[in-house]
Structure prediction request, 192 residues.
Amino acid sequence: MLWPQSIKDRIKTGSDREIIHSYPYRSACPSTVWADLVAGAETDIFLAGYTNYFFWTQIPQFANLLRQKAGQGCRVRFLLGDPEGETTRQREAIEDATLSVSARVRITLGELGRISPVEGLETRFSAAEDAVNHVSLSVFRFDDDALVTPHLARLVGHDSPLLHLRRQGDGGMFDRFAEHSEELWTRAVPPT
Prediction:
């Protein structure tokens, strides 16, 4: 027998071959994975987490890296929740965290304000009608890699699971999550 069952069981051949790794918690994903994906992106960085604040603490020199990427022609986008929105207020009550959702969004806005304007860097708030779909699913894309966090019940993002996906072809999991975040982006509005 050329391929024993134990080997066949480990080889990904179906739709799950886009799943590179899974983590029971977003915080269990090594910071080097995040940093390597940002550094390796050449055409598109799309950070569609509701707050995105953790990038500033997790990746050393993140602001400089964003400037560098945008300067090299990489499109860099931030899709954030509206810190004044109803969905944000509802999520704050659910999480009951010391560092509130609106505070985390404002941290990101403050950091982006320090590096703006940068050609190729865009920021938008999800539309009010899309906010509930945005707050429950974070999609972070880096060219053909994505880190996806479905938010569970009352848990904050770092306590929710994470999937590392790599695009392998049309219509797979990567494309489905990418289409979701792109749809949110089309209706999103510039920060006021």
